[in-house]
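> example.struct
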């Protein structure tokens, strides 16, 4: 479904902050009280599945190739 907010990422961060601050008992309550969804939904386009699978495969190849080097970039004395 589609969020009514243009700033759904910021809204999600605010929900998590509200849970952390004790404003909401949990994320379920934060979502129930703050999230507003529109009646429409995005439906997958079967014609583009191949393109997305190809792009995801390339993303995973890069991710997997770079992942071993992440630990090397940690500052000295700071656990990964």
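> example.seq
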């Amino acid at each position: 479904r589609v969020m009514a907010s243009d700033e759904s990422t910021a809204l999600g961060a605010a929900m998590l902050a509200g849970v952390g601050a004790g404003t909401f008992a949990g994320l379920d309550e934060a979502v129930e009280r703050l999230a507003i969804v529109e009646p429409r939904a995005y439906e997958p386009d079967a014609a583009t599945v191949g393109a997305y699978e190809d792009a995801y495969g390339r993303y995973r190849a890069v991710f997997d190739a770079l992942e071993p080097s992440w630990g090397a970039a940690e500052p000295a004395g700071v656990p990964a």
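> remarks
Strands lie at 2-3, 37-38.
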